[in-house]
User: Fold these one by one.
Assistant:
Number 1:
Amino acid sequence: MPISQKARACAQCDRPTSHYGQLHHPNKQLQTVLTGKGQEAFIALSPAERREYETVKNAVLKAYERIPEHYRQKFRNWRKTDKQTYTDVARELVSLFNRWCVSVGANTYETLTDLLILEQFRNILPERIATYVQENKVTSAAQAAVLADEFVLTHKPSRVRSQLEYSRPDRSQPEYSRFGRRFFSEKSDVAGPVTQ
């Protein structure tokens, strides 16, 4: 029985919602009626918490909640199907955008602005840097910019190192010493200076 049905059952039986967890569904406790993530969330609650409607409801809803990235991707990648009207698509986009905003806590003009500018900033970044910024869970473009600059500086090869890498001889061959000079002469396999 879904949570809303349990709440209605409490009201019909004149029982306060504090008895929510004690309701039985054909001689079963709520724990056995819930399945999957909902059941796991219910089991994780203490016996006292299981009797509180709001606590059980919030725990079960939290278990099924998606991470913000899920809502962002769903919103950004939403496409119209053949069976949908454009009105349906617009309505669904509004719903997905609202879920995304709620999941990241964008409830003011400033946080919404940060969210949209950060999204656009990440679209500009190269994929490796964008992934790095995303993994660090920044909340503004300014924070993302600092991380992106740090990433570039720490992953930028030094000038000396890159020059050495391009000017080095092939050291996988045994004929080169550690100084890069030919170790064996072409005429014999005896070690000695190379005469040219």
Number 2:
Amino acid sequence: MSAVPQAAATAQSVSSPYRLLVVNGNTTSELTSSLASQAEAFYGGSVHIHAVTAEFGPAYIASRAEAAIAAHAVLDVVEKAVETPAGFDGCLLACFGEPGIGAVRERLDVPVVGMAEASIMSAMQRGDRYAIVTVGQRWPGMLREQIRQLGLESRCAAILALPGNALDYVSRSAESALHVSRALDAAVAQGADVVIVAGAALAGYLPSLPRLPAVPIIDSYRAALAQVLALASLERAQRLSLIRADAHS
């Protein structure tokens, strides 16, 4: 058989719409629906989003024990999702704690992006010292451990925990918006020149705030959406360059 039809088919697959797997490591399906809708709006409908929810574990991760359970649940749901014949160009783990991300990267041969690493790397490109605002009293300690593992703690000015239950913030009430706004101000007061609004429950929160401080504010979910598409685009461009090189050889 001629290699030309195969090359043409491969080139066509390279130019097809991107397919991204979005994994909610929490078991709250309503949150998954919100994350999927936000991703579709972010990409303007140009990317196919397949969003999945962890089938067991906490409704919303708030402790180390829950994160350990969620890591197993994340890998389990990814294993099931990748059985689809169409495959994916990238995977986004939509939990700021990134449970199981190492195992997922080991399992997949496409870019796997987590919200913490993506937003912190973005923050360091926008300022000198970053702060993180999230929900849950245990998260500051958990995130300090995570940041140390990433080797990024020296530029962290502060980690601030919002009061209450994370899922209560999904409704974006006036009271919760005020809590977030005050935490952003406190982060700047502690020396941050860029602030990350962190976690799936706070994804898409910025338009609901009464005001923003005069420093860059990064939505951790949108930072991950931007980065996973950038990495998937890089992978595709490299494959396309190889196809073109083969066609001319």
Number 3:
Amino acid sequence: MPHSRRFRSSERSSRGSFHERYRSRKHKRRRSRSSSSERDRRHRREGSYHVRSRSYDDHSADRRAYDRRYCDSYRRNDYSRERGEPYYDPEYRHSYDYRRSRDRDGSYRSCKSSRRKHRRRRRRSRSFSRSSSRSRQSSRRAKSVEDDDEGHLIYRVGDWLQERYEILSTLGEGTFGRVVQCMDHRRGGARVALKIIKNVEKYKEAARLEINVLEKINEKDPENKNLCVRMFDWFDFHGHMCIAFELLGLSTFDFLKDNNYLPYPIHQVRHMAFQVCQAVKFLHDNKLTHTDLKPENILFVNSDYELTYNLEKKRDERSVKSTAIRVVDFGSATFDHEHHSTIVSTRHYRAPEVILELGWSQPCDVWSIGCIIFEYYVGFTLFQTHDNREHLAMMERILGPIPSRMIRKTRKQKYFYHGRLDWDENTSAGRYVRDNCKPLRRYLTSEAEDHHRLFDLIETMLEYEPSKRISLNEALKHPFFDVLELEPNTKMWDSSRDISR
């Protein structure tokens, strides 16, 4: 049933008959405060976003910037895994009761509620195209808006949202909600990806923060040249924040996984790395840090591929036709002037200054990019661990000792003993690190100059000290990228304007 608005508890019968209360103007302005009013007030605040839509097709000048507030819970699984708890509590149940109780005393409040319910039903029954029977049928199916126990919107293929988006299929699911493919009937039937956030306050708040960043990015780059995903529209659908994006292909990780983790060829690694550096440089130039870069958040514009058969390995192998990419997921992006949480980034791509809680800024994105480029080249993750101490041991095994300055400065002295990492190589964990990690250059698959240049770039990105780590402006000028010809769609952009405020 519809749950976009909570009804207040009915008035007590001692306040007079139904007719007396109905005729009383004074009563109309009175609002009861029941024992459950706190939950009601919270839901009414959420309802303030109800059917509020902002479309970039209209280029509205009235752009509302949400207050950026830190939302620590809107992170990836590994954020809270270290705290010993799942990112999303499976035992969590929605705080709203969808089976709305009916007043049994025939009060004015119950009558008024029925009229509100009837008006909402009439509004939802209107279809986008009055002449379209399919649209009317879809709208009728959408009369009852319900959530499952985890807060996901329950929908069916063919349902319509906002009298505009017709659901065609489900593209994926995450802790935040689901992504569906829709037909946008206001844009000539164009296909879009619609991100439907769970009706859970922490995810809704994070979605509002993401919308704020995406609005700033769209304002800065209206022609969509910066290789960040394009947001077309956003709205609140019965407590579910929804964001419409351009429809893209598979993520670079999913393509790798579907291809049996076969590494990308070095010429594809070069082009993909160059684009990622360009996109994130655009963010850094505008005082924004992504904080959650990983192959899952880098999507191909089109993931069509050519299939060849490998006689030696007796298997089919895929080669993506176009390596054009977009950077996505700005739910954790942080402006320089905003609160910086202690822990950011998904575990495998987390910089040492974050693990040691030394403070972080844009260089933590550069470290993540270094890990991503390595993964594209070899087909597997550089730091395959879920433990801080083991992660640091892997870093030392691959990159050399952690600088003494960082050891002295960190509050995490429990990881060190007498100025050195407290790590026993004779334990099972120690043997795992010794057997599965080796110095960085030993991962080279060829002695060709291109491969050595690539690893020289990765080494500069995986510098321990953030102040000594290469900037993305410098990285784009690295000899590894010399063979790339700058084209109009990969040129540098003007970064003179500041979108951070």
Number 4:
Amino acid sequence: MTDTVAVTPAPVAASPAAKKSPAKKKLTASKVKKTVALHPTTAVMVTSAIKELKEKKGSSLPAIKKYLAANYKVDPAKLAPFIRKFLKAAVANGTVVQTKGTGASGHFKLPVAEVKPKKKAVVAKKKKSIVKKVKAPGTPKKKKLTTAKKPAAGEPAAKKAKKSAATKPKATTPKKAPAKVKKPAAAKPKPKKTPIKKTAAPKKNNLIVLLKPLELATSVLCADKKATISIVRPIISSLLSNKFKINTSDNELTVKFKSIVSNELSERFGFGIHNDNILIGKPKVSVFACLLDPRHKNLNHETSENVKEHIRHTVKSLIQSYEETSYENDHGQINKNTTAMDILLGEADISYNEFEQYISEIQINHNLDPCMWWKEHETIYPTIAKVAKNILCIPASSASSERVFSTAGNIVTSKRNRLNAKNVSTLVFLKQNNNI
């Protein structure tokens, strides 16, 4: 009895040790399950990121990291080495294609070529099945021999075979018919497009040729550093007589364009029918400025002799008025340059002599600078030079003044709105004359 009692307590002592080990195993298993439940593996996450990003050139490593950080509870900095290892291994296996870069850097894309051969295989199988079915109606004689031996039971089977053979060729024949109908429909729109292109191109070319001289005229008349007021009438007269003269070879579009432009220019600047309007009242500055320009002083652009005489008379009266003011000082006294011979014999008509001598001068080339010519001949024609300086400085258009306003607007801004007026004028002057 004592032996049995001594044996029983031994297993009781061993039971707590046995109970402790499964408890530890359960705790470790629960911990492992919790960590796995937070996010899937890097392979699954990276492949899903590449799929859903859907970039044509492939997804980059930083883009994949951003996607993982946004959609999974993951720190991309800690997972960076695992992502690189997976990408290298996937590129080596062929599960991921690397479009750019080497190693883990670059752009990655899932292979698309695996989907295409499946479709081709399906189509091939279908074709094979269609070929087999077509062969079946080609051998009806063998089936008829078998059905002839069986008197009653084989008759319905033969009828079914005939029906299936009759229906199958009907399904194959209509597929070829629409393919033949589509070919002439595609060829019809081609001849319609060609005549439109052929007719539109010459119209554009004609308009470009007609508008080119107008573009050159505006660029010359809007210049800043050249005398432009004396060029207005010579340029307009050359446009009317040469560029916009209607020829027999012109088409309807060019004739219409030339007639409209020539009528507008002649009415605005007084050429042709409207040439007599210059004689009424005082002429415009652009009319008599040509006489003070040594390039156009012969007035070859004017067709009427009455207009030429009228221009010469107005310029001569201007020179006389300037000469009278030059003889008197600011205080109204007689000029000290008068000599004894002038007092005894009378003062010579200097203005008349200067004007006649200036008219007899040879007209210079139109490419030369009139300002330089007047600088060289200022001592020979002092009074005419003063008149020329005051008139030739007038711009032909408002483009130069608009440029000055735009520069002033760039200088005086919302952040620099307290500048003095003198400082603004000096800054504008320096900006406009910085190339001198």
